[in-house]
Specification:
This protein has 320 residues and is α/β, with parallel strands linked by helices. The protein is built from eleven helices and 15 strands. The chain folds into two domains: 3-138, 2-keto-3-deoxy-galactonokinase, substrate binding domain (Nucleotidyltransferase, domain 5, 2-Layer Sandwich); 185-300, Nucleotidyltransferase, domain 5, CATH 3.30.420. The chain has helices at 36-44, 53-69, 140-146, 148-151, 185-195, 211-224, 229-232, 235-241, 247-263, 279-290, 301-315; strands at residues 3-9, 14-20, 25-32, 81-85, 99-100, 103-104, 112-115, 124-127, 130-131, 136-137, 158-162, 168-173, 176-182, 272-276, 295-300. The strands form three sheets. The protein has a six-stranded mixed beta sheet. Helix 3 (140-146) crosses helix 11 (301-315), helix 6 crosses helix 10 and helix 9 (247-263) crosses helix 10 (279-290). The chain is globular and about 65 Å long.
Length: 320
């Protein structure tokens, strides 16, 4: 099989790409805001002859594939769909149990469900998440598998840092994921900057390449190391009232406070690989530099996802 579909179906978003397996080239792509949460609600609202949850979800993916087909000269009906994210959750296509840590970077012990093709739908590989005794992930496990080739089989601990709404800090050793922690950094930033008293003290639109924005961001990272976060975030308010710091620069001060608090307990001697995309890369690089953390590798988050799907695709090639 020369192609596969890489699908990341999150709580609030859907993204589907047709990938050429030999070089991981993206041949076609579609994305929208029809995430698992909304899809589950639509399934519950069915009337008449109701489809099973699995059939309902596969029909949606089949429709998206047909939309992509208009711009392609490739027959897509037999191309497997590798699906990660919330598709394996309690509100997803299938409810698959988490893989308890540790798990191997080659994906050999992840929980993966194969669904055979029908006349109307493609074959599916549904990838479940992973868990510890106190934490969970869905979707990130695929990106982690995609990082195997740049990490190497090291006996020294390495840290994968995956920024986002809920960043993950993933500890790798001897080609296995041995632990991870989830942080609420992105979600707390949105809550504070949009829905709190601080919303009047910050403003979006500032360019991170601007020296003053970077300086205020560094100041926020530094301040987070020596003070109680619940006190220091109020300084965003006093920055505006007393010091007259412009709102757009103040936004970066708040961002620095929260990212700095997230990174506060990291060890300076542990090598870090950033799995990033967009503005997150610049923010986390600067925060790590401020804290003298050892960032020695980087991979684009989208590429990590596609590479993870390719690893799993190659393991199941005899199924198609």
């Amino acid at each position: 099989m020369d192609y596969f579909f890489s699908c990341d179906w999150g709580t609030s978003s859907f993204r589907l790409r047709l990938i050429q397996a030999k070089d991981l080239k993206v041949l076609a792509e579609t994305k929208n805001s029809h995430g698992i949460s909304d899809t589950y609600k639509l399934w519950q609202q069915q009337t008449g002859t109701a489809l099973t949850r699995s059939d309902f979800y596969t029909a949606i993916v089949a429709r998206e594939i047909r939309l992509l087909q208009h711009d392609l000269n490739i027959a897509t009906n037999d191309i497997p769909v590798l699906l990660s994210g919330m598709a394996s959750s309690t509100i997803g296509m299938l409810d698959l149990p988490y893989q308890r840590l540790p798990f191997n970077l080659d994906s050999s012990d992840l929980k993966i469900e194969f669904i055979e093709a029908t006349a109307e739908t493609n074959p599916f590989l549904i990838i479940s998440g992973a868990c510890t005794d106190s934490d969970v992930m869905r979707g990130e496990e695929t990106k982690i598998v995609g990082c195997e080739s740049i990490l190497g089989n090291e006996d020294q601990e390495q840290l994968l840092l995956l920024p986002g709404t809920h960043p993950k800090h993933v500890v790798i050793k001897n080609n296995q994921v041995i632990s991870f922690k989830t942080y609420m950094t992105g979600e707390v930033f949105k809550l504070l900057s949009v829905n709190s008293i601080l919303s009047a003290s910050v403003e979006e639109g500032g360019d991170f390449d601007d020296f003053e924005n970077q300086r205020l961001f560094r100041d926020g990272v530094a301040a987070s190391q020596d003070s109680n976060l619940l006190h220091s975030i109020f300084m965003v308010r006093t920055n505006q009232i007393l010091k007259k710091i412009p709102l757009r620069e103040n936004l970066y001060y708040l961002s620095g406070l929260l990212i700095g608090a997230e990174l506060k307990d990291l060890k300076v001697d542990v090598p870090i690989c950033l799995v990033v995309g967009g503005v997150h890369g610049s923010l986390y690089y600067l925060a790590c530099d401020q804290l003298n953390l050892n960032v020695n590798k980087e991979i684009d988050a989208d590429l990590a996802l596609i590479k993870g799907h390719e690893v799993i695709f190659s393991r199941f090639s005899n199924f198609y």
